Amino acid sequence: MFRNQYDTDVTVWSPEGRLLQVEYAMESVKQGSACVGLRSSTHAVLGALKRSVSELSSHQKKILEIDDHIAIGIAGLTADARSLAKYMRNECLNHKYVYGTPLKTGRLATDLADKHQRTTQTYVRRPYGVGLLIAGYDTNGPHLYQTCPSGNVYEYYASAIGARSQSGRTYLEKIYQNLDGMSKDDLIMNALRALSGCVSGDGELTKENGSVAIVGKDEKYTLLEGDELQPYLDRLELEGGNNGGDDEEEEQEEEEESSGDDEDGEPMDL
After folding, report:
1. Staple 75 to which of 114, 127, 155, 162, CB 3.0 to 4.6 Å?
2. Which residues sit opposite 213 in a β-bridge?
3. Other C-beta atoms within 10 Å of 258: how many?
4. What does the pLDDT look like over 137-178, one tens digit per residue?
5. Residues 104-125: pLDDT tens digits?
6. What is the 3-state secondary structure of the chain?
7. Distance between CA 250 and CA 201 in Å, rounded?
8. Rounded to whole angstroms, how far apart are CA atoms 193 and 12?
9. Are the beta carbons of 47 and 192 closer than 8 angstroms?
């Protein structure tokens, strides 16, 4: 993408009917580390790749707890995600205080999408440069929603966002029809299989750069990281599925992403 006279403000339309600043925000989601989500009839699972800025630093958290029954996975600007997570936690607390019941996942996702959309209609705010996968469980069962900087919100059986996520989506498209009857452990393994295809280059999915969150029936938010995640990674290794992304799909995705990259490379804090 190149700078032009129609991308100086988020409220300016281009002659093609596009809001270029919003599209730029959506590009930051494509450059963030990958996140996958899927749900069965009883549970919803999120998986995320964590990045570290150097070998001397810790890995950034990519899965955040919102309430006992809701978790989010993020791709894009982490600072923007923290701001949105604070808003979502406040909404859940306020609803529980007033009504005495947990907030429905769908209502929270719609309220969040409205917050995204408001930034596209005023010149004093920029769009949030982050995409979210929202996993939750309520009286209607498990849910998985995806939000976008444009204000759109979609409900999914399974989805993947972030850099090199096409490989994960391709895998999820092959198995999504069988998700309803899967157990919690099967969902976790499928999330890790999809996530392993999103690892760059010769890298591998490890207990340091991977994380998985589960919410579901009779189960509050649970985060698997480090040693708790290792048994699942060992099973994945035995299957031969932890070998990084598919070369052909990765090359295709890198070509698509290169058209949106600026000269400075990735935005910081993704």
Report:
1. 162
2. 46, 223
3. 8
4. 999 999 999 999 999 999 999 999 999 999 999 999 999 999
5. 999 999 999 999 999 999 888 8
6. CCCCCCCCCCCCCCCCCCCHHHHHHHHHHHHCCCEEEEECCCEEEEEEECCCCCCCCCCCCCEEEEECCEEEEEEECHHHHHHHHHHHHHHHHHHHHHHCCCCCHHHHHHHHHHHHHHCCCCCCCCCCCEEEEEEEEECCEEEEEEECCCCCEEECCEEEECCCCHHHHHHHHHHHHHCCCCCHHHHHHHHHHHHHCCCCCCCCCCCCCEEEEEEECCEEEEEECHHHCHHHHHHHHHHCCCCCCCHHHHHHHHHHHHCCCECCECCCCC
7. 8
8. 42
9. yes
Residue type (1 letter), 226: G
Question: What is the token pair recorded at 70?
Answer: 């809701």
Q: Is the pLDDT confidence value at 250 over 60?
A: no
Q: Is the dihedral of CA 172, 200, 267, 48 positive or negative?
A: positive
- Asked whether the beta carbons of 211 and 174 are under 8 A apart, the reply is no
Determine the pLDDT at residue 92.
97
Record the tokens describing residue 219, joined without a space: 């189960």
pLDDT bin (cut points 50, 70, 90) of residue 200 is: confident
d(CA 131, CA 210): 18
Which one, of 176, 116, 30, 119, lies nearest residue 108 by Cα? 116
pLDDT at 22 over 80: yes
CA-CA-CA-CA torsion sign (39, 157, 165, 82): negative
Q: What gap in Å lies between CA 28 and CA 76, rounded to an integer?
A: 5
